[in-house]
Give the backbone structure.
Amino acid sequence: MRVTKQRTAILDFLRSKRHHYSATQIYDAVREKIPNISLGTVYRNLAQLIEDKEIISVETSDKCVYYDGFTADHAHFVCEGCKEIFDFPLILEDSEPSKAGFLVENQRVVYYGLCAKCNKK
Amino acid sequence: MRVTKQRTAILDFLRSKRHHYSATQIYDAVREKIPNISLGTVYRNLAQLIEDKEIISVETSDKCVYYDGFTADHAHFVCEGCKEIFDFPLILEDSEPSKAGFLVENQRVVYYGLCAKCNKK
DNA sequence: GTATCTGCAAATCATTTGCATTCTG
DNA sequence: CAGAATGCAAATGATTTGCAGATAC
């Protein structure tokens, strides 16, 4: 794996934010620094960065995938009101699959509902 | 909401199986009973059935959504070896978001790894 | 009878890919 | 230099949608 300015810019962007971004949003953000970067390059780098465990992907009921530069285990909450994605701590215990002899390499917890603000309305 | 033979066939199919199917797989299965059903109808009914909480959707790192006629709370395990999706009980406790005043309407837990069989190889 | 649902086909839209060129080590 | 990575544009594939005709209630 080579260090290119494109890959560096993408990773720097994701790490600089405690937020979750779609490929297109990342593309738009990085384009401010590298105007001629292509969307294909963004996707290829995101895939590579996931493989290298530098970032994680967040699959929700949205049609697009979000990417997160914060890789410590945590849960996500998708607010159906304001569409915001929130982070929450994830309490890991002996998981059912591992008790059954399965090898758990990864786990995703996503809550859906209304955030505190939207819930009050 | 009207009871059509298409909607009934889709729901019957999903309820008759303890398994998870993509829209295309459901389309293929239901076509054996209703040969001229269209994929668009399958998607429209799946969306409706989800809204009515008759079925649930399972989002994974796959590019397609899976549908599940078993609606009681449970976790999913996606085996990266054989690609099978397994059900596991889900131990629900006071979730972090609800402690924070968020309204949790739904929650999805997906594990990734190797099932017992693939893990042995 | 009328609003809802369906089949069909075309449109979307996120993501992937082929290829010639450029860049990193 | 050689293998990787990039930009561009075209391809893919799941999902959505417009519309005219069929169906449920």
About this structure: The helical segments of chain B are 5-16, 23-30, 39-51, 96-99, 116-120. The interface with chain A takes residues 57, 59-61, 75, 77, 79-80, 86, 88-91, 95-97, 100-116, 119 of chain B (CB under 8 Å).
